[in-house]
Amino acid sequence: MVTRSFSKPARVLLALSGAGALMLTACAQNTEDGGAPAAGETTAVEVGTVDDIAATLPQKNVDSGTLVVGVNVPYSPNEFKDSSGKIVGFDVDLMDAVAGVLGVTAQYEEADFDRIIPSIQAGTYDVGMSSFTDTKEREATVDFTTYFNAGTQWAQQAGGSVDPTDACGLKVAVQTTTIQDQEEVPAKSEACVAAGKPAIEIVKFDSQDDAANALVLGRVDAMSADSPVTAYAIKQSGDKLEPAGDVFDSAPYGYPVAKGSPLAATLQQAVQYLIDNGQYQTIAENWGVEAGVIDTSQINGAVS
Questions:
Q1: Per the CB 3.0–4.6 Å rule, which of 6, 84, 111, 154 could disulfide with 164?
Q2: What is the reported pTM?
Q3: Domains of the chain from N-terminus onward
């Protein structure tokens, strides 16, 4: 049996120091261990190979001993780089645990977010791991194994009065190619125009950290992102940012794999094993994201 230990820093409100963490100077930094947690703030997770699940792994992965994982960083606290340049985060710990169940090593390859799914289709990557929302539209081209639930959360400068349901005429920052960029904010903007109000000015950034910094600096009126990401950005800003409205539109995160690939079922079994034995919960608590944990991993579990 192969046994691996995973332990990462925890903070009550996603207050991990991460790649692009928002410093009080309102500058994003890619060095990350300032304010590293004291020992004892995490619970180690020991993951060993589960032979009957590992036996379902495609032969090419058995032969290589790896899962090639396409990832886009930074998207703290889910995936980002520490001060040594290593990719870390909740998603990383969970994928490492999944790989441990399968008796292989997760090999992370960085890519632009919008290139990950095409690269999976082309066979360059086995799986994607970059906080992908499982949607009906994406399921037309790839299959998903779900592992988490996240909603959308807006942020504003402290003391602001932004209403996400009536943001007509405001500047709203998003990370390009995310659900917020492609669906959520455009739909709100179209509703504004249909009501005879000014459109929302959607300000796109390649990095979520850049979007958050634009808000801290007052270059936009609000930011829209996945709920754990917004919570992290708010905490890292000190007292500069605060939530704007409640979390809404909860939907599953999933690992995209090639359409029809047996890897989807293998990953589902591995995730469910970690859920059932409590290791999944521990990993989530280590990163402070337990609000989004699920009870059952599904294949193609999109809600819209």
A1: 154
A2: 0.76
A3: 51-150+251-299 (3.40.190.10), 152-248 (3.40.190.10)
